[in-house]
From TrEMBL:
SUPFAM superfamilies: 6-phosphogluconate dehydrogenase C-terminal domain-like, NAD(P)-binding Rossmann-fold domains. The gene is gpsA. This is Glycerol-3-phosphate dehydrogenase [NAD(P)+]. It comes from Sphingomonas kaistensis. GO terms for molecular function: glycerol-3-phosphate dehydrogenase [NAD(P)+] activity. Pathway: Membrane lipid metabolism; glycerophospholipid metabolism.
Length: 325
């Protein structure tokens, strides 16, 4: 099975490094200097510096080179996935979506976008608690591969899985995607707690109440509760809410320290998906009547509509209710 990776950011490069252990792997980078840097120095100096890359990774800045692949691992920022797939040379037999987000314009999960752009391809999702630099270093990692047809997922798992890259199968595609998208917004909130010095109790409460929001939204979208409580949901939420290695957590930490969102977002080369997911997630939750007060607070902070103190006061003034709600 010939693998092509679409997206030469940190995660696309780390996934190419994993796939290269099973044979030559094409890696498309949007920036010609990234493809050139990998070809010349075997390092992605821009997005994954310090990691020596396998000789079995063949970098390219020309998407049409991926026409010969059987499967594409799609690892663009969520908001650019549709445009990249639309400019790609046809579609392969299978797409494995590895990005985390919700398309802002359409409100669609990424598997819905992919099915519109590649109608005949099998569309699957790979998601979980996976910092790129740890995966690239070969540290133990476990993730969820969600697909409607188990045999198709098994074939890709056989090609990608390694002892330190453990892939669990699921048939809950929407569930795997909701967890990855929502946790990025909640990680921003956890970063705010850190930056504002609100303490470990507050962070734990936020993870638990944030998980309740993720579960309410996921169930409304047809996800299963056990998927949301698994690697791609709770697992990734715990990881991303615990470390400044997370770009989303770091963004939130800056907000908590009082820096304006516009300043924090300016000149970013790396993507903090939660900043793009927050407004669309808030819009969808309000349209669908799903209560998501933490998501709304993050959206207000990012848009500059409210200060940290104002959203904190609002959250703490919420009525005390039964925990299961
Ligand atoms: N970094 C991680 O640890 C990690 C882990 C799991 C999932 N992800 C997800 O993978 C996706 C990609 O993140 P990343 O960390 O690899 O990226 P990154 O932050 O390392 O790099 C930014 C990427 O965005 C691309 N980009 C910028 N503008 C673009 C445009 N107009 N069109 C297409 N591409 C554009 C760049 O080419 C580059 O590949 C995100 O959805 C992220 O949530 C990341
Ligand atoms: O750095 P972040 O916040 O984009 O998180 C990276 C991965 O999604 C963690 O699983």
């Amino acid at each position: 099975m010939k693998v092509g990776v679409i997206g030469g950011g940190a995660w696309g490069t780390a996934l190419a490094q994993v796939a290269a252990q099973g044979g030559e792997t094409l890696l498309w980078a949007r920036e010609p200097e990234v493809a050139a840097s990998i070809a010349d120095t075997r390092e992605n100096a821009l997005f994954l510096p310090g990691v020596p890359l396998s000789n079995a990774i063949r970098p390219t800045a020309d998407l049409s080179d991926l026409a010969s692949c059987d499967v594409w691992l799609v690892v663009t920022p969520a908001q650019h996935m549709r445009q990249v797939l639309e400019t790609a040379p046809g579609c392969p037999k299978a797409l494995l979506l590895c990005s985390k987000g919700i398309e802002e314009a359409s409100g669609q999960l990424l598997h819905q976008v992919a099915r519109e752009t590649c109608r005949d391809a099998a569309v699957m999702v790979l998601s979980g608690p996976t910092f790129a630099h740890e995966v690239a270093a070969g540290l133990p990692t476990a993730l969820t591969l969600a697909a409607e047809i188990e045999a198709e997922a098994e074939a890709i798992r056989a090609r990608l899985a390694r002892p330190s890259f453990r892939i669990y199968l699921s048939d809950d595609v929407a569930g795997a995607e909701v967890g990855g998208a929502v946790k990025n917004v909640l990680a921003i909130a956890c970063g705010v707690v850190e930056g504002r010095g609100l303490g470990q109790n507050a962070r734990a409460a936020l993870i638990a109440r944030g998980f309740a929001e993720m579960t309410r939204f996921g169930l409304a979208r047809g996800a299963r509760a056990e998927t949301l409580a698994g690697l791609s949901g709770l697992g990734d939420l715990v990881l991303t809410c615990s470390s400044t290695s997370s770009r989303n957590f770091s963004l939130g930490k800056g907000l908590g320290q009082g820096r304006p969102a516009a300043e924090l977002m300016a000149d970013r080369r790396t993507v903090a998906e939660g900043a793009f997911t927050a407004p669309v997630l808030r819009r969808l939750s309000e349209q669908e009547g799903v209560d998501m007060p933490i998501v709304a607070a993050v959206d207000d902070l990012l848009s500059g509509r409210a200060s940290v103190d104002a959203v904190l006061e609002r959250l703490l003034a919420r009525p005390l209710r039964l925990e299961r709600h």
